[in-house]
Amino acid sequence: MNTPGNLPRMDRRLAIQWMFTAAASVALRDSALFAAENAVAASAKPKGYGRDPSMVKLYQPGDVWPLTLTEPQRHTARALCDVIIPADDASPSASAVGVPDFIDEWISSPYPAQAGDRRIVLEGLKWVDDEAHHRFDKTFAELTSEQQSAICDDICHPAKARPEHKPAAAFFKRYRDLTAGGYYTTPEGMKAIGYVGNTPLATFDGPPVEALKHVGLA
Amino acid sequence: MPVITADQLQDSYDVVIVGSGAGGGQTAYALTMEGVKVLVLEAGRSFDPATEVAMFQLPSQAPLRGVSTPDKQYGFHDCSIQSGWEIPGEPYTNASPEPQDQFRWWRQRMMGGRTNHWGRITLRNGPYDFKPRTRFGAGFDWPIGYEDIAPYYDKVEMLIGVFGTNEGLENSPDSSPGVLLPAPKLRVGELYAQKHGKKVGAHVASIHRAVLTQAQDAETVPARLHPKNAKARGILAEHMRSRAPCFWATDCHRGCAIRANYDSQTVHLRPALATGNLDILPNAMAREVTIDRQGKATGITFIDKTSGREGHAAGRVVVLAASSQESVRLLLNSKSNLFPDGLANSSGKVGKYITDSVSSSLGAHIPAFEGMPIHNEDGAGGPHAYVPWTLHDQNRRGELGFPGGYHLEFTTGRQMPSMTTLNGIDGLAGGGATVYGRQLKEDARRYYGCNLGFGGQGTMLPNEGTFCELDPELKDQWGIPVLRFHWKWTDFEFNQVRHQQKRIRELLEAAGGKVAPKSEAEMFKTMKPGGSVIHEVGGAIMGADRATSVTNQWSQTWDVKNVFLADGAPFACTADKNPTLTIMALAWRMADHLMDELKRGNL
User: Fold this and answer.
1) Could you tell me if the ipTM is greater than 0.90?
2) Which residues numbered 153-182 in A keep a CB inside 8 Å of some CB on B?
3) Of B19, B28, B374, B480, which sits 20 to 30 A from B46 (CA to CA)?
């Protein structure tokens, strides 16, 4: 049987990865920013869904591990989601379809791949709120949409952003990716992007003639 | 006879099979239909495709939008449980720390094995693929030719249900008349590549996949498969009628509750159970093949994972179908005074000559697809087309620098959105800016579904530097010694990847795609590590000479005549075709021989 000296190689690698992630988050922890995390750490360490979860069950954020954003963080997260994907005549906003909950689920994930995003998002949300206070003396959520866009426009170009805005620009790109990914994977988002599958059909008739004409095939 | 627990094992079986996937399933089917009493040992748990697969669930109904995690390494809804590249407690090792010398090993610990989540691509090997030594002066000729296996390709295709077209291509063989189901219509991206690929000599054809595009012909197919066996015909007809044709939705990798695509349980094990001749013992991790004093196999010792206790399943014949490298591991771990280097290893070739498909990929944005009229491209839950290998003249003239060839598989279409659907949108729409707001919604609509990509899957011939052995120290959680892999690419594979990248680029550019130039280093970054295509085969190769191979042409080990292999282990190379169909055809052929030998009293 195994002794500590001959732990399976893959397990060891995984263990080191986990330890590294855990150590990094402890070392860099800002007690106010990561208040929720401290609360979680005090109780049981969250676990993943395991290697044999029910695949047919319908899950919602918070079902498998607890969500950890504080209420002020959630306000900012929601506002920023809706700047990125606002409602229009054809489709709802990101917050209307639960994207902030998804982002909370993502950054609260017990898996190592999301640990980096936790830092980026929590620090980024703080930056956005600090910037709103600094410029307009309000929280980001309280700003007009013009004021919100003014801040986002400064951080929406990772390559061209001013040096002091670089970390915020990296955050904005990541947050946009999470918001868009979260949105377009919902039924409303799929409708908005033009995905009309996932429905049983009696026959598969191939592309309609207008699609073939569009690319010069008919 | 049913799915059983360890305390319900019978005293002895005619045949004990290790593994319930494509090879084990096909073997169990062929044997039990003819009245042979069979036990299948499966290391994973029972799994019910009818109630456990997630077909219509959306990413937003899964944790983390269904992205892959260490617990579900192909994503949440992929039909694989307790499976992965890395399984806690079940390690393997690589001898070299060099990145390009790594072997990655996917294990699928569940009833039906890897057949639960594969792409259902079922291409036949062609005549050249069995004779690489004759044709290219490298690798080893198989002791069989295409004509030996062709009847079994027909039989397997009729049994499992395969759609496709007969194209009359060199070395990508046609099926016999009436065997294939109708091919589905091609999607826009597939048709577009078909038209524009001609400019660069790429032939886009309907692919062959194990998906029912119409109900199987339960009147005539059973009679063609079992002409002399009324009971088998009745059972098969009933099971064929219980399979619904594809309803043109949901990804085949998620599994299929309506039985429209092939998996081992649905197509092989259900009718096999209905014969009354099959027991299946799940949660049984095989440890070694046991032998008697005469050197004949007597059965399998296994760990019952539900109790942690060791058990023994006795049989007159043992068939290993545990996946190629698990079967190799079983042989190497079956050491005795008679077989000090592992079972059936007098040649020293057990573990040698592992190969995988040679694979790299490249994709591009196709401007012509922008603003495409909205329509449903789900289709048969996977590709409808592929680009078969046709450059045989260049092969013949020795112009390519590598033997064999590769086929190209498509990535295209208006697929169900995922977390990566908008990757690259900033480069297309925003000039590098992070697009947001109303513009993001407009651009998402405009650019969604505009990607076209291809992945090559090509020939790999065996080499002396690519093999496995028992790790001298490490054991798994059951105390079973694990495998240590050695992986070496040769210039053949590097040359092939260069060619794949050049050819895919030409094809994408012919379709109007812009592909940024790539350095050699960047090109090789897209080359998948050994094992990553999950087409690893070999390790107990068949041959005509017992000094240089592990089995004869019947996948029967030279040294122990009542031990057979029914997975990819006897493959003497990887062709430019996916291996699963060939695993099944070889298994059925092996099973017929096994029964002949049983009847003759030779086993």
Assistant:
1) yes
2) 156-160, 169, 172-173, 176-177, 180-182
3) B480
